[in-house]
């Protein structure tokens, strides 16, 4: 099992993360940001309080992500690691408007 550090008052990494988080909360989801998992950080996590667990991890890919091949490769490795630990991870690209 992965160690989860889910403090809910962490700083956002970008305005894009804030926008995605706000839209999800407007739709009634409980969303935590910058969740620490086994030495990694997940941008946003949707938490199911009835099940007492995260049901989805969301990575918000900004403009810098698309300009860096090494960032993409690193994030793909991280995503595979987290998925191997039971996380469901999706990526949202800044180029798609909310």
Automatic annotation (TrEMBL):
Q: Which Pfam families match?
A: MTES_1575 (PF18741)
* Restriction endonuclease type II-like domain sequence ranges: 16-92
What residue range is the signal peptide? Answer: none
- InterPro entries given for it? Restrct_endonuc-II-like, Restrct_endonuc-II-like_dom
- Entry-linked SUPFAM superfamilies: Restriction endonuclease-like (SSF52980)
What protein name is recorded for this chain?
Restriction endonuclease type II-like domain-containing protein
């Amino acid at each position: 099992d992965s160690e989860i550090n889910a403090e809910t008052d962490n700083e956002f990494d970008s305005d894009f993360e804030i926008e995605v988080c706000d839209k999800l909360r407007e739709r009634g989801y409980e969303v935590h940001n910058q969740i620490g998992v086994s030495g990694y950080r997940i941008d946003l996590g949707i938490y199911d309080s009835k099940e007492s667990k995260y049901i989805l991890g969301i990575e918000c890919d900004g403009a810098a992500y698309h300009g860096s091949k090494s960032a993409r490769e690193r994030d793909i490795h991280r995503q595979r690691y987290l998925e191997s630990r039971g996380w469901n991870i999706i990526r949202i690209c800044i180029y798609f408007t909310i």
